[in-house]
Amino acid sequence: MTSILARIPKKITPGLFLFWVFFLIGIFARVYEFGAVPGDINQDEAFAGYNAYTLWESGKDSFGYRFPVYLTAWGSGMNALESYLAIPFVAIFGLSVRSIRMPMLLTAILSLLVLYKLFRRTTDERTALSVLFLFAIAPWHIILSRWGLESNLAPAFILFGLYFFILGAENPRYFIPSALFYGLSLYSYATIWLIVPFILLLQIIYFILYKKIRLSKYTVIAGAVLILLALPLVLFLLVNKGIISEIRLPFISIPKLLAFRGDEVSFEDIKENALRLWNLVIIQDDAERIWNYAPFYGLYYKLSAPFCLAGFICCIHQFIGHTQRKETGIEFHLFLLLLAGTALGLLIPACTNRVNLIFIPLISFSAIGAYAVFNAISPKVLWIPVLVYGAFFVNFERYYFTEYRTMINDNFCTGIKDAVAVAMARATPSQIINVTPNASYPRILFFSKENLEEYLATVRYTNYPSAFLNVSEFGRFRFYFEIFRVDPGAIYILETNEFPILSDNLKSSKAQRRTFGKYTVYYP
């Protein structure tokens, strides 16, 4: 008890006060109306959520594999980490939008704390506060934290791995949790399988050169942890390259996908990919992927471009100084993440969630640059960037919960949850519910909580096998029907704008209808 009390600050310093202000602002921006905005649900997070539900209920994914290392999902696979992390929340709170978004929310909030501690350890308090502040209010980080796209876990787990790796220079025990987080990051996003080994190799070489790492029982254990976590994915690649057969064990499965998207990485489209990457990181525009970024505000505010360049130059200067003094610094690791993210963006068509690692160094450079520029003018004017960025943040928040909220309704199929609930409440146990294919069958699986065994026994596809399967029916749900010959005695979930082309049978019948967002339920 005495040791705990000794850690409580006797005095609240300005730095500690600002830490809590910035940290609480970051938390508020992520938890306010959490689960309701965006609403209802994206099709990818719906599939991840349904898999979390079936894994909790039966230990199987939506294709019947027991504890797979990679989900078959659409046919060409889905990263599994989000589903596994959501299981405790599904177990406690049931399957809901909030429960399956909790892993992203918590890792995003924890990322803010880790970023501060990382820069506090490797730079100084003011730089650490600058980085914390800009990440806390960055539209990119706020947007990703509020819904559960599985690939957006990657930046957090890479960051956690980096933090413990740097701690390992002082205490080698920390190399073990570093290996754990780096290993788990591989299950968050398959594309980073290309760059995590590259990042780790160069970090290890860097630490060896500066005598920050040596062979010990802790480095051996860390290596073993990393190998054990990577081995199932190595087997997964061998299975899907046709080298070995798929593996089905009671406690783990290595599935053979219906289609393997191993050809996404290409050296043939580098020029086109470079233009996409430029638009993404400099213009801060992610084309039509409105669910990934906020128009006008960008990903980390468009006024950040000159500060990002200034911060990059400052880090080069600091890196040279550290090298001359034979010291290590955070700059090397930021450059490494920037290089890895850039390489990835040149090899695949870049979008926000595909090259999400690159925003860790870019936002860090922006914060470092803004602090350096105004501190060089005078420490007395450091409040200016805080006020300017704060004003942008306040306006972004207003925009996010008003205009942007409405703008992304269609992408998250707002109203589908209530439409499914009403349709199921009105239907008899044997009555068919017809659903517009545009609703996407994972959303129906999610909100109906379809029994897995019933689903596996009744699911029918229109294009099996395929990289992206289309389901024609499962259980009581039908997704393909003749809209000009509807049955007035059946139940339909349709997009509201489909009513003008409905069969006259339904229009002239006494069918009741209830509208929720973009969907209307028709029932006798």
What is this entry, summarized?
By secondary structure, this protein is mainly alpha-helical. It contains 21 helices and nine strands.
Structure description:
The chain has 21 helices and nine strands. By secondary structure, it is mainly α. It has two domains: 46-407, no CATH class; 416-523, no CATH class. The strands form two sheets. It has a seven-stranded mixed β-sheet with strand order 4-5-6-3-7-9-8. Strands 1-2 form a two-stranded antiparallel ribbon. The longest helix is centred in the N-terminal third of the chain and has 26 residues, at 97-122.
Tags for this entry?
524 residues, mainly alpha, 2 domains, seven-stranded mixed beta sheet, two-stranded antiparallel sheet, 54% helix, globular
